[in-house]
Amino acid sequence: MYKKILMPVDVFEMNLSDKAVRHAEFLARSDNATITLVNILPVSSRSLLRGFASDIKKFETFMIAESEKKMNELKRLFDIAPDKIRIEVRFGNVRDEIIAMSNKDDYEVIVIGSKTPGMSSHLLGSNAESVIRYAKIPVLVVR
Hints:
Layout (H helix, E strand, L loop, with lengths): L3 E5 L5 H18 L2 E8 L11 H23 L9 E7 L2 H11 L4 E5 L5 H6 L2 H8 L4 E4 L1
Parallel strand pairs: 1-2, 1-4, 2-3, 4-5
């Protein structure tokens, strides 16, 4: 059914990802699919660090390394072959990056964890809701 699965993860809120792991794993095992774990980090505020370009680069390098480390830990939770799981770190807006990846790389489904809706997500919108709204492929939201 699905050969390429995109799974956005927030490495700083792993409880959302932990729930989605089992669902992504089930989909991947049923069709020998690949899973891409992607963590989207916010773009550094260059206006605050004006004149400190080397510091921004060091900070971004550090954040990429930390994200990759945490995603490799998450990768161990899957009961599928490790070569079937890719990891990627990007900077940008969560929704925009996920939608861009899903459109460009021929993914067939997005599996994303979500918090139980609360007042803040109803007023501001959540990443999962935003992805559902703009995605052109199926989105499985796991709570």
